[in-house]
Amino acid sequence: MAELQAALKRMFGFDRFRTGQEAVVRDALAGRDVLALMPTGGGKSLCFQLPALLQPGVTLVVSPLIALMQDQVRLLRDNAVAASFINSSLDAAEVSRRTAALLRGEYKLLYLAPERLLLPEFLDGPLRRLSESPGINAFVIDEAHCISEWGHDFRREYRQLSL
Hints:
Blueprint: H1 2-12, H2 21-29, H3 44-54, E1 58-62, H4 66-78, E2 83-86, H5 92-103, E3 109-112, H6 114-117, H7 120-132, E4 136-141, H8 145-150
Parallel strand pairs: 1-3, 1-4, 2-3
């Protein structure tokens, strides 16, 4: 317990976990599939961000909203965490730069929309190479309530993430 709290303090500046966070972090670090339901502002993101920083490889975070991706990455970078996003707000040259950096192992977390993740050119190219080196330590489906909240027609790609 002391080791995780020390990492929490060192990486995010928090003295202790909020209710439920530590159990989720421990399960994620143990390689278990985790479903974390917490209220808005309850600290869900930390539950996958901390394990991402404590393990080798990269964590891929599927997120439905560009603004949310940008905000999460900004907050992570403010804490000196190597994170980025790839989404439709970027031109092709910037997507190529970030993809190359990803494959060089420069990121611990990469945020992308489900549509981007499921593009054949991403699945068959960078994702396949990434799984070899530097490795993928986790896939996170952030804001997965989109399926139940708005129904399967909101973002049909969420229903295809098993690919």
